[in-house]
Prior knowledge:
Blueprint: E1 24-25, H1 29-33, H2 36-45, E2 48-52, E3 58-62, H3 65-72, E4 77-78, H4 86-92, H5 99-103, H6 114-119, H7 128-133, H8 135-147, E5 155-156, H9 157-162, H10 165-174, H11 178-181, H12 202-225, H13 231-240, H14 246-259, H15 262-276, H16 279-287, H17 292-302, E6 312-314, E7 318-320, E8 323-325, E9 330-333, H18 335-339, H19 373-390, E10 395-396, E11 418-420
Amino acid sequence: MTIQEPPLSAVEPKTRPEPLPDPVPLTGCPYKSNPYPLYERMREAGPVHRVLFPSGVHAWLVTGYDAAYAALNDDRLGKNHDRGNDRWRARASIMPEPQHSQLQAHLLHQDPPKHTRMRRFVTDAFTPRRIESLRPRFQELADALIDALPEAGPADLVAGFAAHFPFQVLAEVIGLPQHLAARFDRDWGKVVQPVGPTDPGRPLYEARLHGLQSYIAQVVVHKREHWDDDLLSRLVVARDRRELSQEELDSMIFQLLVAGQEPVTNQITTALIALFRHPEQLARLRDEPDLLPRAVEELLRYDSAFELTTWRFLDRDDDLYGTEVPAGDSVIVSLCAANRDPRRFPDPDTLDLDRTPNPHLAFGHGIHFCPGAALARVELQVALGALLARLPGLRLALRDEDIEWIPAVLGRGTNHLPVGYDRRR
């Protein structure tokens, strides 16, 4: 018996995917609520694409896993803003002077050897062994916040938990005294969200910037007068010994306060939303708490709060994985796109709590690998474990499509997460 092929007229022609615009706009609510379909199209079309951000900045986005991994380790790509060309600077130099020079000299904007010199001051505070020793204290902080939630839902888990837990943990780790920690305004962290000079929100942006800078100055004065064996005190001593400049000291404290708070707050929300969308996985994780370490790795891969990296620059016109990129144009790596690449992760759009190995790039890679990765991992394990154990029946209290994703350029998360639960334990 033979099988006859259908006549040519009966074969439906394959539809070609709609070409991507040039540049690809990374804007709008549909993109922020679910960027993964766009990232899939970009990966299929090639690893590097010209993109447009809401601020008007044009950049080159790296999307595939192999290209992202290479870019994160590519010594041609520098982080110092001095490498940026005039086209980039005209749109991206959002923070005014003198604050830009005083608060932007941190690790994310440095290259070796300066980066190497500065990074050595912070690594000891975030070693896995030290962080693990603090786990019981982190558990106490999480339980205290849950104790303050209503006995039965509804509650907003951002306002009641996720907005506070990471900063309380950070204060313990870096040696920020309680009276200063209580005065920190979470809105100050929004100074990393671009607000152009003509934006109506510019006065509020600058007020937040001045408030944060004044707060950092108070922290430095306090630590100079009340030295202790903690990270903040050691940074102040390094400044007094002229091992750090004043700008480097202020910038490193700025980075600790902002990067140590908001990304973890956002990652708690993205992890919970992923679990709410997969109730069978939520139930399993609640019943099998020993699964938490592996589950956290998968939740980081599945929807990372650090969606995009900060700027990188080529110091000369060069080929970047098949695309010619001009010197001084910004190059950004999409960590979320890399973490959903099917060439590296089987069934990448599936939340698989048993996934192993799981070489995700949620914390970056190479010399700029997040120094606080061990802390973030333990924070997420403690936070998710406590919430699932103590809030039985935990569920989303609004429609999925009504979740308001933050409009941040580089990050993912939500400022409000209304939930219901049966009764607080």
